[in-house]
């Protein structure tokens, strides 16, 4: 039991020798030992076969006390096989014949049975009774404390749970690696549920290593790890963990834990906005729980099904009755982390069915249960409270609950150590942001709407002072170098036709390295610094200095905009978002066609389509604002609008920013900047246009520092960027919409990623990125955005020029040269880019694409 992997061969040999010696007592004991080793590696069917034989031998030969031990072991295996009734029969049969000194083991197994079927109060009482006994076997003491800690955590008693685990871990070290791994996994799970997510992730890594050291399967570890990743909103990674758990338990025939893993798959399908898949997975889990007679677990699966039906718009009164019943069941178990979302879902269903009074009661019950819970449960309670207030038409209460929740979220987000985790965490506040925005828009005050949008806009990156991420450790630096090596191999393969199909292993290795880097950043120290304050309207107007700021928002799939002019602000309703996104997709399709070798007629058709889409986007997004012709604009997009080529929509200088706070900071930085005259020109590899471009720019900047292949390496470019007044990078750009922190600029030794810019804090005063898609930041739930632009502006860069699409290499040189010529005469990047774009011959397809897709960001 202490070290199943090590002693399984010993047990196998003992079975052989006992059979040879025809010793029934020795054979029954050896079979039980071998069965436990099989159980440890999830071979429960084989374990049960061995225990069935051991039970027959013990009974045939009147070995009552051995039979009792065998029955108790078989009860544990039967539970894992989902045979709860059979497990109960085994324990009942063991009761009259168990040895007095083994009675504690029988009590322990009954407690485990209670815990597995959801009778947590009875299980906790039994565990506490056992732990109070003198002379309790050490192994039983460790597992009882471990299991009790899980129940305490589910009831919100996190300090008690961790104290139990401290004692259990100390004792486990004296007993063997299997128990060490068990306690390590539980500590990680409890730490996450206590709200200490980053520490919990680190402990999960340690638990995985402990499981591997003990030779134990990782199925249960995957289930618990999926919970942690769900709380961090790392949905793809959580889905992989949950499906891995399902596969492990299915392969090994362990339906007890398999059903729990299937429930996680259903929950993750909901988070991934796939209610059809969620309904199917929750139905499967509920059927398994029903067969296993596990009522509390079945209730949780049925709750996921009810929420899926609500999302699909098919929830009925029967679903409401079921959700309300499930809520009462879960609340009765004392598990607030499951009861709060249960009452919230029941309240949502009631509201959807028009039963407002019931909805308010259910939502307020959720809010009440959430008080005093860890932050993520409190956030769910704030959502429920705000929804209830909205149904009561109490806008003041809606805002009060939303503000409280968003303040909680801000503290939680600041404690996370990486941009990725902070950006994902903002998704927890997406609904609070929408509820508050609805109140503000109904109120009609443009100033208050802008203030509210700024509370949620790009908050993960912005602190009161620009600060780099904590410096990476040596392992991360080595991994980044390794990543560049893999990129170089992939680039070589792409030019070698004979190696067609060979990149598969290299791509897998690339993903592995990226995950190593990500995990290292998850375990770092939290970033210091308070959140940046919203800029007061008077200060914003003073910084705008005659410009007009337009900040867009989305409320229930409809666009609104706040227009901040020199004298007053206005709120403008623009209509549905979907037609805008349709035009954006059509525009980018046309632009891609214009960069490809095609017949003149096809290029002309693409140009006509692009012109039409630009005109329609202007009609949808700019003309309704009533902005004076020729007014210089500062545009703050939202969500997918960050990818629009905004410069093409307004015939005047225009700059972009992730938020008004971001733009105000860049304006202040531009005002305070003392020029040092340092200009850096960087040529990337394998771009004929870049060579010509840098040569022409060198003539404009004779004192510039110029780096060309093979000297334009990532480390050299990072070193030079930090001290530059103006930097220009002419190189390939690669957008990674799956993980924008690995979007990259291709330099001579491989990719320079957003991740490296974040960790090194390289921030030139002004930067021109003559690279494909370098301006295409990726949006996240909760109005977050991550990419080169947002990362550079957050680190202190005051102005950037970049493109949101693939750009023609050679043709870009004309635009870039004109841009630098205008910069030499003074003025901002926005003004210089506008003048440079005006000089392009838009009848040429390449020039049109560059005219359309390059934009200025920030105020410098």
Automatic annotation (TrEMBL):
Residues 615-858 form the CHAT domain. This is CHAT domain-containing protein. It comes from the Bacteria. It comes from Spirilliplanes yamanashiensis.
């Amino acid at each position: 039991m202490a070290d199943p992997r090590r002693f399984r061969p010993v047990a196998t040999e003992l079975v052989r020798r006992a059979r040879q010696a025809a010793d029934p007592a020795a054979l029954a004991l050896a079979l039980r030992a071998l069965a436990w080793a099989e159980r440890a590696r999830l071979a429960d069917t084989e374990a049960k076969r061995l225990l069935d034989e051991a039970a027959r031998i013990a009974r045939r030969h009147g070995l009552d006390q051995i039979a009792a031990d065998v029955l108790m072991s078989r009860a544990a295996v039967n539970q894992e096989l989902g045979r709860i009734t059979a497990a109960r029969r085994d324990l009942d049969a063991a009761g009259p014949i168990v040895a007095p000194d083994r009675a504690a083991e029988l009590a322990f197994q009954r407690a485990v049975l209670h815990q597995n079927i959801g009778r947590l109060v009875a299980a906790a009482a039994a565990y506490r009774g056992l732990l109070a006994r003198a002379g309790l076997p050490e192994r039983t003491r460790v597992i009882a404390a471990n299991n009790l800690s899980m129940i305490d955590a589910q009831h919100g008693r996190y300090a008690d749970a961790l104290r139990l685990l401290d004692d259990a871990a100390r004792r486990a070290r004296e007993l063997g690696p299997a128990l060490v791994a068990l306690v390590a996994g539980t500590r990680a799970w409890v730490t996450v549920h206590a709200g200490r997510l980053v520490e919990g992730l680190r402990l999960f890594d340690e638990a995985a290593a402990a499981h591997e050291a003990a030779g134990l399967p990782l199925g249960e570890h995957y289930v618990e790890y999926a919970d942690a990743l769900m709380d961090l909103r790392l949905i793809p990674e959580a889905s992989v963990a949950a499906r891995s758990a399902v596969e492990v338990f299915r392969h090994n025939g362990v339906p007890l834990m398999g059903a729990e893993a299937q429930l996680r798959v259903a929950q993750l399908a909901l988070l991934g906005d796939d209610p059809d898949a969620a309904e199917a997975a929750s139905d499967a889990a509920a059927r398994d729980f029903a067969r296993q007679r596990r009522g509390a677990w079945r209730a949780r699966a049925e709750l996921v099904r009810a929420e899926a039906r609500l999302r699909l718009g098919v929830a009925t009164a029967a679903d409401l009755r079921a959700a309300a019943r499930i809520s009462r069941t879960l609340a009765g178990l004392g598990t607030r982390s499951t009861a709060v979302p249960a009452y919230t879902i029941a309240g949502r269903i009631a509201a959807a069915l028009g039963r407002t009074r019931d909805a308010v009661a259910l939502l307020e019950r959720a809010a009440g249960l959430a008080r005093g819970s860890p932050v993520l449960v409190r956030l769910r309670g704030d959502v429920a409270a705000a929804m209830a207030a909205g149904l009561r038409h109490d806008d003041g209460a809606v805002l009060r609950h939303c503000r409280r929740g968003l303040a909680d979220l801000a503290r939680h987000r600041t404690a996370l150590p990486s941009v990725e985790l902070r950006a994902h965490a903002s998704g927890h506040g997406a609904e609070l942001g929408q509820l508050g925005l609805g109140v503000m828009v109904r109120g009609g005050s443009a100033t208050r709407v802008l203030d509210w949008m700024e509370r949620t806009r790009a908050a993960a990156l912005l602190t009161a002072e620009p600060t780099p991420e904590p410096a990476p450790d040596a392992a991360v630096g080595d991994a980044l170098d390794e990543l560049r090596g893999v990129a170089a191999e992939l680039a070589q393969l792409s030019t070698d036709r004979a190696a067609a199909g060979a990149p598969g292993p290299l791509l897998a290795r690339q993903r592995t390295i990226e995950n190593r880097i990500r995990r290292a950043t998850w375990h770092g120290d939290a970033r210091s610094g308070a959140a940046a304050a919203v800029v007061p309207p008077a200060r914003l107007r003073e910084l705008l200095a005659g410009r007009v700021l337009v900040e867009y928002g989305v409320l229930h799939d409809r666009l609104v905009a706040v227009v901040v002019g020199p004298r007053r602000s206005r709120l403008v309703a623009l209509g549905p978002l979907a037609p805008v996104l349709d035009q954006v997709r059509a525009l980018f399709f046309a632009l891609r066609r214009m960069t490809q070798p095609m017949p003149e007629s096809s290029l002309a058709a693409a140009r006509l389509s692009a012109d039409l889409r630009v005109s329609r986007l202007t009609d949808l997004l700019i003309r309704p604002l009533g902005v004076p012709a020729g007014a210089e604009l500062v545009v703050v997009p939202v969500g997918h609008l960050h990818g629009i080529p905004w410069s093409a929509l307004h015939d005047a200088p225009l700059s972009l920013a992730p938020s008004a706070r971001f733009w105000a900071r860049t304006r202040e930085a531009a005002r305070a900047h003392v020029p040092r005259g340092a200009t850096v020109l960087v040529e990337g590899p394998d771009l004929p246009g870049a060579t010509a471009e840098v040569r022409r720019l060198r003539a404009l900047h004779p004192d510039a520092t110029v780096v060309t292949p093979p000297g334009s390496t990532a480390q050299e470019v990072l070193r030079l960027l930090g001290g530059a007044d103006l930097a220009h990078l002419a190189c390939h750009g690669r957008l990674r919409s799956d993980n924008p922190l690995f979007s990259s600029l291709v330099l001579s030794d491989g990719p320079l990623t957003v991740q490296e810019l974040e960790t090194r804090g390289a921030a030139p005063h002004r930067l021109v990125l003559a690279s494909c898609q370098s301006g295409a930041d990726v949006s996240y739930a909760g109005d977050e955005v991550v990419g080169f632009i947002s990362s550079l502006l957050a680190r202190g860069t005051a102005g950037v020029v970049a493109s949101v699409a693939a750009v023609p290499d050679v043709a870009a040189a004309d635009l870039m040269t004109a841009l630098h010529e205008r910069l030499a005469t003074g003025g901002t990047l926005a003004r210089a880019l506008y003048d440079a774009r005006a000089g392009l011959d838009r009848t040429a397809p390449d020039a049109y694409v560059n005219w359309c897709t390059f934009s200025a960001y920030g105020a410098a």
